[in-house]
């Protein structure tokens, strides 16, 4: 089900109820870009520690925005059956009372999403607003101070406001008390901003939305105006404005309150955007970010971490994409032992995904994430014991069998295998690093070294010293050592810290100098006097 700004407020109460009743919630996001290429040394690297990668990703998250967020709400029925309500939310940053929000578009990301049918008109024209706590505080201060200003730099927005205000000021001079007029074609923020500006400028008007983009303006006495402002019939109350401006953040706060298990796939960037866009701007400290996320969502399950484990322990096929993982788990070959897998049924109104695959549509990928969790957990449960598994395993049993993977989010190409949001990060077991010693090839840089070796294996390269480079890979071809044994300019060997580290070499040189001077001093001090 697709949800935009037009219908979000109407659906919000039902969405909240479904989340509070759910067994768990799966999530996926699409962005206007992933990694900013305009920032120096911002590409992910195998040399990155989690803190270094976080700082790189933080810069990108601050530049890019969310264009679509998918939620799949999984509810367990009486039998071993889960009903799924899957939603696509088109999002657009809130601009009501906030200085203009800037974000970057990546050409490759735009092309990628366009290839999979993403509708940018819905993102731009019907995107649900959202804001974090800092932005909400600014808006609240403007509302409480009754000092409303229109911050939009969009000429179309300003034209709408000027037209509406011009019509009212022309009409009110000759209007009698209790006389009304209707303003047309006001939607979204325009409806609120016109009311706020009119009420602030004119003490003898009252406004009321009529629906269908119409706004009634009535001329009233100042006394009558004061009575109306203190009534529950005021459709421009500050709390209602805040509710509308928060938009999707209202649903995010429900997710936080519900504390349901949150499921995703390769969800490190998803969690960073959740924090930055709906909670607070990302902190500089990696450890603070981890603590905040764990407080918001105490149970996180990354299906990428689970499937990597299954590939090692369960002879699970080495497939990479989420759709391929889902297809492999649905295969009867993997599920010969134990009771049938849980039934996963899409709710009425969300059944399109049962008929058509829609990869890289956030709601569909969220549906796949939750399904992969259930099918993976069922498979692991069946293989974890020789005893018969009951025909209707509870969701708590599924959580128990994946407990060692809870709060461990996959870390792509880095110094650890996963980020542990409830403990210490697990170190990664890379193959031994290689060191390249350069002779007779002046001016060689990291890019040239990468080009030299990329045909044999994908290495990340870092300069070690003037004539040495270190190579790191998830796996490398042993022939690299053999092929470069007699190379005229490049000598390749396995990296040994005690032998190749510049700091160790420096320490050894200093130690040898100190030892030599000590020996010299001893020799002089020990010689017989004349």
Automatic annotation (TrEMBL):
The protein's matches in SUPFAM superfamilies, at most eight in alphabetical order, are given as: Ribonuclease H-like
Q: Which residues form the signal peptide?
A: none
Q: Which Pfam families match?
A: CAF1
The GO molecular function terms of this record are:
3'-5'-RNA exonuclease activity; RNA binding
- Kindly list the GO CC terms recorded for this protein: endoplasmic reticulum; nucleus
Give the UniProt record's GO annotations in the biological process aspect. nuclear-transcribed mRNA poly(A) tail shortening; priRNA 3'-end processing; siRNA 3'-end processing
Homology family: Belongs to the CAF1 family.
* Descriptive protein name: PNDC1 ribonuclease
Biological source species: Dasyornis broadbenti (rufous bristle-bird)
| Lineage, opening ranks | Eukaryota, Metazoa, Chordata, Craniata, Vertebrata
